[in-house]
Design a protein that fits this description.
Blueprint lengths: L4 E6 L8 E6 L7 E6 L6 E4 L5 H6 L7 E9 L5 E9 L7 E7 L16 E5 L15 E5 L7 E8 L3 E6 L4 E6 L10 E8 L1 E12 L2 H12 L4
Antiparallel strand pairs: 1-2, 3-14, 4-14, 5-10, 5-14, 6-7, 6-13, 7-8, 8-9, 10-11, 11-12
């Protein structure tokens, strides 16, 4: 899956250097169906060991096709690590993992080497069927830029076998493919604080209705018969 996107140039944090940003096109909002969001407008502080925030706060148990957006604030409890288990089994023995590790609140352009800096990673080692190539079960890591106010912004689009991630308002994008084991209970979605603590400023999840894509395609073809 590579979803349509809008490209634009922007100078982050009032710097004179323009950088390329990618954001999902607004038309994708028409696929949104059932909406889950935090029940209160106040931020939620999540400490190490808590794993059920999505289930307890949003009421979302799991699904195969959904859109997820969250804004997290880094606290003084560093280092911090947060994992998102996608298409996971209940015991998290299978699933694709997206994670963020925050070691400092310095801007990414000042500390961007992976041993010292902040990173976002995808972990495919247990993402279902992985034995078809020796390099597929691996961890991919890139530097994570923090937004003003020590914020982390993540936007996921998940379908049956891929994830499209837009990070830091679209400054970073990641596309991952994975192959869930057929006929297995692997449709759960977990957020897990592995180390430190994090404040959840915003959290929204939409179940997507992909039948709208087929309806739109049929409508488009019907309009161009002449």
């Amino acid at each position: 899956m590579t979803i349509p996107r809008q490209l634009h140039l922007h100078a982050p944090n009032h710097t004179p250097i323009l950088q390329l940003y990618q954001t999902p096109v607004q038309e994708l909002n028409t696929l949104r169906n059932k909406h889950y969001t935090l029940k209160h407008s106040t931020t939620v502080k999540v400490k190490q060991g808590q794993q059920q925030l999505v289930q307890q706060r949003l009421g979302f148990q799991g699904g195969k096709t959904f859109e997820f957006h969250t804004v997290l604030r880094v606290t003084e409890q560093l280092p911090t690590e947060v994992k998102f288990h996608i298409r996971s089994t209940p015991d998290k023995s299978e699933g694709l993992v997206f994670g963020v590790k925050v070691k400092s609140t310095y801007p990414a352009d000042e500390i961007c080497d992976k041993p010292r800096g902040n990173t976002v990673y995808s972990d495919r080692r247990h993402a279902g069927i992985v034995d078809f190539h020796q390099h597929f079960p691996s961890i991919q890591t890139i530097c994570l830029p923090l937004l003003n106010g020590n914020l982390i912004e993540l936007h996921f689009f998940v379908d049956n076998s891929s994830v499209e991630a837009f990070i830091a308002d679209g400054l970073l994008t990641v596309t991952e493919s994975f192959f869930p084991t057929p006929n297995k209970d692997n449709h759960y979605f977990f957020m897990e604080v592995v180390e430190g603590e994090i404040e959840v400023v915003k959290m929204n999840l939409w179940v997507q209705d992909l039948s709208k894509i087929q309806s739109a395609q049929m409508h488009f073809k019907g309009d161009h018969k002449h």
